[in-house]
Amino acid sequence: MLLCFTIFCFLIESWAQNSTVAPGGMRQLKVALMMPVNMSDASVESNIGFYRSAGAVTIALERIQLENLLPNTNFTFVWYFDECVGSLGSGYTVEAAYVDKADVLIGPACPTPVIYSGTVAAFYNFPIFIWGTIMPSDINDGTRFPTLASTSVTTLSITLTLMEFLIRFQWNEFAFIYAIRRSDLIPKCSYLASDIDNAVTNEDNMTMTYKRNIANDSYEILKEKLVGLKKLARIILVCFESLSDRRTFMMAMSELGMITDDYLVVFIETDRTGFFPSGGGMWVDRNVPPDGKDDIALKAFENAIILDLQPYNLSFDTFNQEVIANIEKWPFYCVGCIDKSLNASSRAPNLADTFYLYASSLNKTIAQYGESAKNDGTTISNMAKGEYN
Ligand SMILES: *[C@@H]1O[C@H](CO)[C@@H](O)[C@H](O)[C@H]1NC(C)=O
Ligand SMILES: *[C@@H]1O[C@H](CO)[C@@H](O)[C@H](O)[C@H]1NC(C)=O
Ligand SMILES: *[C@@H]1O[C@H](CO)[C@@H](O)[C@H](O)[C@H]1NC(C)=O
Ligand SMILES: *[C@@H]1O[C@H](CO)[C@@H](O)[C@H](O)[C@H]1NC(C)=O
Ligand SMILES: *[C@@H]1O[C@H](CO)[C@@H](O)[C@H](O)[C@H]1NC(C)=O
Ligand SMILES: *[C@@H]1O[C@H](CO)[C@@H](O)[C@H](O)[C@H]1NC(C)=O
Ligand SMILES: *[C@@H]1O[C@H](CO)[C@@H](O)[C@H](O)[C@H]1NC(C)=O
Ligand SMILES: *[C@@H]1O[C@H](CO)[C@@H](O)[C@H](O)[C@H]1NC(C)=O
């Protein structure tokens, strides 16, 4: 009962513990959102920025109401901008749980504040449902983060999949090439690189024969390194954060005559778009003017495998427009805050899923344990486990 601050809550506890509808009127749910806003780093904005994401909450709320998941509930929202900073994440989590007496925290959306917020939330037994970019495997630790539930993929599930995949085909040796380009506020390949190291240590029959961050390599150096790699590995795992790196790498392979059945390049992706990141295939040159070698690149990509997450099951165009339009409406009322020609952020669907997941978990929690469990973070986050579609 640590989080039952209000008299309302005590009344429910003593009078109607297992009822599904709050007595004496509507159930009040205050939802706290946390994400970055107005970041100078464009990649943070396009992945999880507030103005391009927050509207997804309203879309999820419509579905929650349509499915009657939490009938007779009055939702209110507060939001905090953590700017991907750990201290802001922990501070605002205290504010949400203790000062503003929110019922749940939806966010943060970047890895550093997630660790801090998750720790604070554990202290208050405060439910925290995170979304956003790829998360470090630490958050899978249910002892450290008992009140945390996530719809973000962690690097742990990716490396487990990778190892399973390599073992399935009895590939015991591989090279790992990566390039870190993204802001370290929302890392991808650096987490993956360290998790792959750990995974290899834990697999008796698996060896990483070569590893290199090629972010600072010129094209000539890259080719030189590939010549060296040729003798060491035939399975090449790659993790890239920019589109041009993907194509450049395959072009270098092609120039070195490595597009044969002897080599396989495995792209580790998390954008749910497979070979077709927004606006065209991976093999397409986006430079102006283009180099005219797209057919060679396409041929090279035929020798690659992409390991990616399942695409979102939604109609993107409508979703995009609604997310952008919703920021002007309740509860945000932020008129003119965003250039309307922009698309929703890439993780906005993830935010919608997360809020829906919370509603669904709370529904199950109240049905099983009564209204008094409304703020029991550990129970609610346990209820989040399961399959959804
Ligand atoms: C973000 O930037 C816009 C435009 O400069 C400004 O109107 C808005 O108040 C800023 N939002 C926050 C939360 O700082
Ligand atoms: C849970 O959802 C169902 C509809 O799916 C609804 O009938 C029920 O009242 C909900 N329970 C609670 C506790 O809100
Ligand atoms: C919901 O709660 C807010 C804040 O307490 C209040 O202003 C609003 O009137 C309530 N709405 C309904 C439908 O009860
Ligand atoms: C390791 O993998 C190789 C190739 O698949 C196989 O021949 C060997 O038996 C495996 N060793 C162990 C200890 O599993
Ligand atoms: C790449 O270059 C940048 C800027 O010179 C430097 O900060 C960074 O440490 C370099 N990275 C690697 C992997 O060498
Ligand atoms: C989304 O999922 C539902 C249920 O699994 C399925 O019926 C529908 O065809 C899917 N839609 C798309 C666009 O994949
Ligand atoms: C928005 O998304 C669509 C479809 O993915 C794409 O064609 C368009 O270029 C995007 N617009 C912007 C401004 O990025
Ligand atoms: C509420 O439900 C839980 C689980 O179904 C049960 O253990 C508990 O005794 C119930 N409490 C009341 C007051 O009925």
From TrEMBL:
Taxonomic lineage from the root: Eukaryota, Metazoa, Ecdysozoa, Nematoda, Chromadorea
GO MF annotations in UniProt: peptide hormone binding; signaling receptor activity
Keyword Transferase: no
GO cellular component: membrane
Alphabetically ordered keywords of this record: Membrane, Signal, Transmembrane, Transmembrane helix
Signal peptide, first to last residue: 1-16
Receptor ligand binding region domain location: 54-385
GO BP terms: signal transduction
Record's keyword annotation contains Kinase: no
Pfam annotation, one family: ANF_receptor
Cellular compartments annotated: Membrane
Organism (species): Acrobeloides nanus
Main location: membrane
SUPFAM superfamilies named in the record: Periplasmic binding protein-like I
Annotated protein name in UniProt: Receptor ligand binding region domain-containing protein
